[in-house]
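Is fe (ii) ion placement plausible here? Inputs below.
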Amino acid sequence: MPTRNAEQWKQPPPGLRQGEWIDSRIYSDQEIFEEELSRIWKKCWIPVCHESELGEPYDFRTVTIAREPVIVVRGPDNKVRAFLNVCPHRGNMIEMRPSGNFKEGTPSGNPKHMTCMFHAWQFDMKGNCAYISREKEGYQERLSRKDVGLRKLKCEVYFGGFVWVCLDDDMEMNVAEWGGHAFDCLQKAVDAEPLEVFHYHKAIIPCNYKLWHDTNSEFYHDYLHYHNRITGFNDEYFARKNSSYANGHVVVGSFKVRYDQYKGFQSREDVSFPHMEPNAWYMIDMFPGVNFNLRGSALRCDLMTPLGPNEVMIEFRGLGLKRDTPEMREARIKHHNSIWGPFGRNLHEDLIAVSGQGGAMHEVAEPRRILHGRHENHTIHDEVGMRHFYDVWGQMMNRLPSDPSKPYSPPPPDLESEEQSQAKAAAAN
Ligand code: FES
Ligand SMILES: [Fe+2]
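Reply from A.M.:
I modeled the complex. Tokens:
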């Protein structure tokens, strides 16, 4: 095939239509990135951690969503609540540790309270202001503690015990409604009994968060993974369904993984999650940047925190059953880490690939066309999932993914109906 000159290089292949390619500026433009934080990340439910990380009353975990500092705490009533981690006095971040417990006091604060280190205001586990230092002397009767409580955030524990937070008070859907039928394929497996995080690591990667999201949701890149080619790539694999759901979510259906085909690996059926077929593998890719991936015996959850147009922090969690015996837990850790751990078979391959994309899509790169045009009857290498994700992205941003300088408009009717009818059908089931 001939090479192309600069003008030809910028054009999409003539046989593809709007919706089958996007413009690379949506991965590199600072203004678009800022808009994404406010129009998408502040509007969606985000699973910030797992309840097993807050096992005891007064346990806490701090995170950020769209740069906003957030704290989740378990109260003495065992309820998990979320607040902005911002002091109502002068806006200091109240808790700076990533995790811990408030049962013990701090140098300037009482036990069982969150204490802002700056001027020692204190808050209880429900976010009420419990103490203002030299309150009467300074404020007389002009300021009441009840007027300076913390900013409470919408928070739910749902889907296998994940702690979901939404910054938008006007969010009308609860997590179940927002995730909808995308949860169905794994709901029984993860809700059968309590789960526990057994693995956590994080990585800061030089790429846009959507590129990591893409690599989780598309399986055409299994050509990158020797392990997946050896243990999959059979008729059942190529028939695996790729389905779109309301609100931008995508699910990849199951098939039987042939772990025994890979030297040193064994079947995982002895430690399957409840209600899972032996060696099955489901994947739920939640909008805008969360992934649940259950390979028979180990659940992986990736949470993306966008840091900049070309920088994302990814938190990787591995989960098993809380009641695991030491032997079961050891097997799950091995199964999880040998593929998805920092030195696992697949993870670094994905990270190298998206870093390569990030290296080519930096802030001053020319706009390029990124192709999402594969159609294979909604099976595993069909890029219907990415087309669906970017269509919802375009709607929320009111930008056209194939030319973000223009307002959103739907893809061609036949392409649109293909994606949307599938999402509607799935929602109706
Ligand atoms: S800023 Fe928190 S007590 Fe002053
Ligand atoms: Fe991968």
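Short version: Residues 87, 89-90, 92, 116, 118-119, 121 surround FE2/S2 (inorganic) cluster (ligand 1) (CB under 6 Å).
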